[in-house]
Design brief:
With about 600 residues, the chain is an alpha/beta fold. It has helices at about 5-25, 30-50, 55-75, 160-170, 230-235, 245-250, 255-260, 270-285, 300-310, 340-355, 360-365, 370, 395-400, 430-440, 440-450, 470-495, 520-525, 535-555, 590-600, and strands at about 80, 95-100, 100-105, 105-110, 115-120, 145, 185, 195-200, 205-210, 240, 290-300, 320-325, 405-410, 500-505, 575-580, 585. About 45% of the residues are buried. The mean pLDDT is about 95.
Length: about 600
């Protein structure tokens, strides 16, 4: 068989490109087998039949080949799969534990130092008539329930696996070539389950950490490796996290729903799920060896805003002791995100009814979940519903009726960078851009923080919108969207005479660095999940941060032997503990910006 050189070169290039697409798309092994079969068949066809045919016939054969390859990509798309509780083949099963709903077992981690119980139902499936209702008690079961897999993630718009893989490769630098991950995590409207990591064996009165994942209240899952609970469980902490309803399922608001609710609530179903899970922990965690009188709630990003909401909710009074909040809060007079007025929530509710041609809630409940989740409206905010949240959160703090007895909270250096990724900011539109978060005080902010370019810290910088004022804009937006919320939260709690500890994370690395969520694998001890992205200084910092977190969870004071002193925010409201190349108290670099933000917020 004779082949033209151009044919061979072009075919090899195409096969390599398509093979990369199969890998990035997490397509099944069947896709690889079909690709090889198609390529071999195409080579044979050209060598024996088409090589000397007219050009238009050869072009037609290429077109058919491309179509068949596209079909292969589609039919070999990754299937949904539940994620195992531990990355251990045939893990050993734990002894039985009895909770209110029945008996269950978990599995041991690799060295049998931690027991993991995944996929425990804490509420009834919120489906059918229970869609957009307050969470109902979990159903009991017969026999012994095997809790060895994470339950499906809550309904959310699932992004392309190609996009996700490219983000992992270019943005997070954690993509790994593997034929073992040819699947996507399961997703379902039936998602109200929680997971528990506990030290192995008999445990008594262990402190409990209840963690709420982030994701803008529109996405996220409980098995993310950044906040896996194994490392803290090895240090004597029982770690719990939970899934909760998201986006249109979790934060949809409608007057008809409020009328049918015995509590008159609407718009906060995801928050009510979190509180229901926290109640389940109070009722059952003693069976795992947990101390019901020593529960700390924690969260990051939207999870941190949720922690703030739980701190002001009358429904959560007495359910926890302390709070850890990372990179978000809602104590400002008008929070910048994850919070909206009931009027705006109800207006969007009507828009969604019209979008799906629904005349009433019954019609909307009949819309399939996989269709409803793709609404063009973004439900990413809590609201004052008069039940879960009774007033603007700052008012609850002014009255001293918030629930947390101590607070550890803080923010990262480059919080807003990824959120501002697609916005080009130049000297010409800089003030206009800042007005989005500072209104009439944008000019003063521009004088305080003159325009400058963003540093090229990320691989994504090669495609970032950029602009000669982008770095300055990112700094101001980081302060407004994230950092100010912690300054405001800290001073409100410290004014009540309670202990407050505030941090500032600045450590760079080969992954997220000090961007939004960059601190999580450090403080929860999960750098080893992607060890190649970190060096000795990162692991040393992680050890330090874990000690602070564990001490706070156990006692309410993060300080301990061998650690630099973390001064209380009460002692000096200008300083934070920096977690960077050094661990030391420094003056918060945003104090002058906070003063402008105070002026802006005072007018709300």
């Amino acid at each position: 068989m004779k082949f033209k050189k151009a044919f061979i070169v072009f075919l090899l290039i195409f096969i390599l490109i398509f093979a990369a697409l199969l890998e990035f798309g997490k397509n099944t092994l069947a896709g690889w087998a079909l690709l090889i079969a198609l390529a071999v068949g195409f080579v044979i066809l050209h060598g024996k039949v088409l090589n000397d045919k007219k050009r238009y016939i050869r072009l037609a054969s290429w077109l058919c080949f491309f179509v068949l390859v596209a079909v292969v990509f589609k039919i070999s798309a990754p299937p949904e799969k539940r994620i195992p509780a531990v990355d251990v083949k045939n893990p050993e099963i734990t002894a039985e534990i009895s909770v209110e709903q029945g008996r269950l077992t978990g599995v041991y981690n690799a060295d049998k130092s931690v027991e993991v119980y995944a996929g425990i139902p804490y509420a009834a499936p919120p489906v059918g008539e229970l869609r957009w209702k307050e969470p109902q008690p979990a159903e009991s079961w017969d026999g012994v329930r095997a809790c060895d897999e994470f339950a499906p993630m809550s309904m959310q718009q699932r992004g392309s696996e190609l996009y996700n893989s490219m983000t992992d490769l270019i943005g997070y630098h954690k993509f790994k070539v593997s034929l073992k991950d040819n699947f996507v995590g399961a997703m379902s409207e039936d998602s109200l389950y929680l997971n528990i990591w506990k030290p192995s064996g008999n445990v008594e009165n262990a402190p409990v950490l209840f963690f709420i994942h982030g994701g803008s209240l529109t996405g996220g899952q409980t098995w993310h490796d950044a906040y896996n609970g194994e490392a803290l469980a090895k240090q004597g902490i029982i770690v719990v996290n939970c899934a909760y309803r998201l986006n249109v399922f979790g934060y949809y608001a409608n007057e008809e729903l409020a009328a049918e609710s015995p509590n008159g609530t609407t718009g906060n179903y995801g928050l009510l799920d979190q509180i229901a899970a926290l109640k389940w922990v109070n009722e059952n965690i003693a069976q795992f060896g947990g101390d019901v009188d020593n529960i700390t709630i924690a969260g990051e990003s939207a999870g941190s805003s949720s922690v703030n909401a739980i701190c002001v909710s009358p429904l959560a009074k007495g359910l926890f002791k302390r709070a850890i909040a990372e990179s978000s809060g809602i104590t400002a007079r008008e929070p910048y995100h994850t919070f909206r007025s009931i009027e705006k929530a109800l207006k969007m509710g009507k828009d969604i009814m019209a979008e799906f041609s629904a005349s009433n809630i019954s019609d909307l409940r009949n819309v399939p979940a996989d269709k409803l989740v793709n609404t063009r409206y973004t439900n990413s905010a809590m609201t004052v519903d008069g039940y879960a949240i009774t007033e603007q959160p700052y008012l609850t703090y002014e009255k001293g009726e918030n629930n947390e007895q101590a607070l550890l909270n803080g923010f990262n250096l480059h919080e807003a960078d990824f959120f501002m990724f697609s916005r080009k900011v130049t000297k010409d539109n800089y003030v206009e851009t800042l007005s989005g978060v500072l209104g009439d005080y944008a000019d003063e902010a521009a004088e305080l923080i003159p325009p400058y370019e963003q540093s090229k810290r990320y691989s994504l910088a090669i495609v970032e919108a950029g602009g000669d004022a982008k770095g300055a804009a990112d700094r101001v937006y980081s302060a407004a969207w994230f950092q100010y919320s912690h300054f405001d939260w800290s001073r409100r709690v410290s004014a009540q005479g309670k202990d407050v500890y505030e941090y500032y994370f600045t450590k760079d690395n080969r992954s997220l660095g000090s961007s939004h969520a960059g601190e999580m694998p450090y403080c929860y001890g999960n750098l080893d999940k992607h060890a190649e992205l970190y060096d000795e200084s990162d692991f040393a910092l992680s050890e330090t941060m874990q000690k602070y977190w564990v001490n706070f969870i156990k006692t309410g004071n993060p300080n301990g032997e061998g650690l630099p002193e973390w001064q209380r925010f009460n002692d000096d409201q200008t300083k934070v503990l920096e977690f960077g190349e050094k661990v030391e108290m420094i003056t918060d670099p945003n104090l002058e910006l906070y003063a402008l933000l105070d002026k802006y917020q005072a007018e709300k």
